Amino acid sequence: MVGAGLVLLALAGAPPTWRAPDLAATQRALDARLPTTVTRPAIGAPFARLVIPKLGLHWAVVEGVDPAEIADAPGHYPQTALPGQVGNFAVAGHRSKGLFWDLDRLAPGDEVIVEYGPRTFTYAVTGSRVVAPTAVEVLAPVPGSPRERATAAALTLTTCEPKWDNDRRLVVTAALQDAANLPGEVPNT
Predict the structure, then answer these.
(1) Catalytic residue check, 94
(2) Which CATH fold would you assign to the domain 2-181?
(3) 26 CB-near residues (< 8 Å, 6+ apart)
(4) How do strand 119-131 and strand 153-161 relate by DSSP bridges?
């Protein structure tokens, strides 16, 4: 958790970026590199697709949350669960146009979809809150409850708050609702 705290604090020094056209090109390139099988991702490599229907946006997610890794893509906190696993699949993204700019529009019940290899995981937003950059408990296996043992799959999205500043973090939490194979995929045996 100390490493996660350092990452949350490191985001405090990262200024908002406004490179939507470059971001789109980078995302297309990352999307083309997404694996079709489930593998442990290498730092900096794209490994999943994050889709938020309410925002009309989707992104390739890379492994890692260092500034270089999340410059043009949301990044997975490596010490957290992978998509669909029991525990907390936590993802950080800059509060910039084309990334998590409108994350504050999500409300309880909104869907967040994660495609990982041949599987798709549908999460439902359970809530959001604003925390200090040092609030690493949001990355715990049970978000916000570091002493509890996880028994379900959760998703946490983090970004800077407010827009145009980075002194706090907006945290959106979601619970796994459904897991299925992507259309045309054969179930794993």
Answers:
(1) yes
(2) Sortase; Chain: A; (2.40.260)
(3) 72, 73
(4) unpaired
| Active-site entry in 48, 99, 114, 160 | 160
DSSP state letter for 148? S
**Are the C-beta atoms of 154 and 173 separated by less than 8 Å?**
yes
pTM of the model: 0.84
Strand partners, 119: 116, 181
pLDDT > 70? residue 51: yes
* Annotation marks residue 160 as catalytic: yes
pLDDT per position as a tens digit, 97-122: 889 999 999 999 999 999 999 999 99
d(CA 127, CA 131): 13
Of 178, 180, 179, 176, nearest to 152 (Cα)?
A: 176
Residues with Cβ < 8 Å from 91, sequence gap 6 or more?
50, 61, 74, 75, 76, 77, 155, 156, 157, 158
Q: Which of 64, 76, 89, 94 is catalytic?
A: 94
Q: Tell me how far apart the alpha carbons of residues 79 and 4 are, in angstroms, rounded to a whole number.
A: 8
Residues 106-110: contacts with CB under 8 Å, at least 24 apart: 106/52, 106/54, 106/55, 106/172, 110/52, 110/53, 110/54
Q: How many whole angstroms separate alpha carbon 169 and alpha carbon 161?
A: 5
